[in-house]
Write a structure and sequence with these properties.
Elements: H1 12-23, H2 29-42, H3 47-54, H4 58-71, H5 90-100, H6 114-120, H7 125-134, H8 153-165, E1 171-193, E2 199-220, E3 226-231, H9 236-249, E4 254-259, H10 269-274, E5 278-282, H11 293-305, H12 313-329
Parallel strand pairs: 1-4, 4-5
Antiparallel strand pairs: 1-2, 2-3
Helix pairs in contact: 1-2, 2-3, 2-4, 3-4
């Protein structure tokens, strides 16, 4: 049964708004139909005739006649709908975060996605995973840091960085260090054919040891070129022998050598006295990352040593020498981009151990 038709009195202002709505090409169809219903009702048309012209049910016409008569233009807007209440709220997110701050269950090294869901009992594991992704929380990755307790950190770091960004005139700046105990491992390598026809390249987990070598390296900061030599050990005598070869490579030049705090690098005053053109600069304690040759050792490991196999120690040494030659052909200096060196204090910070 259709309710009794409500009389619609349309003001001039509302009429202009509704007519503009009907003429606009961007008006939604639902808003267009509601506007036409009110305009036709204001002309005194019956509910059934309006429904037939607009193409809706008579009860729809009656609804919008009543809504406009009671509330005006605001009545033509959709009322807010309650919708379905969310299962998980911000309170749930807070509970997950508080739980992750606590130690994992006994016997587990770290939290994983299912563990918070089990501990909370009323939270689905799929929501836990979504929450972790949205907040960019990686439960597997681990950050590491090295805190320098050197009281002269700022002065030493500024000294080293100053050699990088503003080297002394007519002097050579070198970064020197050792990569000890590089193993000559012989591994079975080749292709493994799978039952589905795919072929994978790889190496066996089994290996034979053929000895180790210690690589002494000096990186020339201005050019990026490497001077390297091999040794069986890394004692003071081997270090000073290597420095003698470095001096021979730059005859008559003043050398500024950046070193870490290894014992063999220190207490070499007699040698330094005999070589007045050489000056040692030491990185702060636990800050050997300031030494650029460490970057080159990482490049050497990734491009030359990882995934290789050697049948003898000599073959390993020749392999490294060949890489050094190839690297020097295209060597470029590293660019130091840090403009300011600040000492960040760690004292008083709370570190939570999971």
């Amino acid at each position: 049964m259709i309710p009794e038709a409500r009389e619609v009195h349309l003001s001039r202002k509302d009429g202009k708004v509704l007519e503009a709505c009907c003429r606009s090409p961007v008006t939604l169809q639902r808003d267009l139909k509601r506007a036409r219903i009110v305009l036709l009702a204001a002309d005194g048309r019956s509910t059934r005739s309006i429904a037939k012209e607009v193409g809706v049910q008579p009860r729809i016409v009656s609804l919008w006649r009543h809504r406009y008569a009671d509330h005006g233009l605001e009545g033509l807007q959709d009322k807010p709908r309650p919708g379905k209440q969310p299962i998980y709220t911000k309170t749930t997110d807070t509970r997950i975060l508080k739980l992750l701050d606590k130690p994992p269950p006994q016997g587990f090294a770290r939290w994983t996605g299912p563990l918070p869901a089990e501990a909370l009992a009323d939270v689905d594991v799929q929501y836990v995973w979504r929450f972790l992704r949205n907040h960019k929380i990686d439960l597997v990755a681990r950050k590491s840091w090295c805190e320098s307790n050197d009281p002269n950190f700022t002065a030493k770091a500024a000294d080293v960085v100053g050699l990088y960004v503003a080297p002394p005139a007519k002097a050579i700046v070198l970064c020197v260090d050792e990569k000890p105990s590089i193993q000559a491992l012989e591994r079975a390598q080749g292709y493994l054919k799978l039952p589905n026809g795919r072929a994978l390249t790889g190496q066996s987990h089994d290996y034979k040891r053929h000895g180790t070598t210690t690589l002494f390296a000096a990186l020339e900061v201005a050019t990026g070129k490497i001077i390297a030599t091999h040794s069986k050990r890394r004692r003071r005598i081997e270090f000073l022998d290597f420095m003698n070869s470095v001096i021979a490579a730059f005859p008559g030049r003043k050398l500024h050598v950046i070193l870490d705090n290894l014992n063999t690098h220190k207490k070499n005053e007699p040698w330094l006295k005999a070589h007045p053109d050489v000056q040692f600069h030491f990185t702060p304690t636990s800050a050997s990352w300031l030494n650029q040759v460490e970057v080159w050792f990482s490049i050497l490991q990734g491009q030359s040593l990882s995934g290789t196999s050697f049948t003898s120690l000599k073959q390993l040494q020749e392999h490294i020498d060949a890489y050094v030659d190839a690297y020097n052909d295209k060597a470029e200096p590293f660019v130091w981009t840090k403009k300011k060196v600040r000492q960040r204090r760690f004292k008083g910070r709370r570190i939570t151990q999971l």
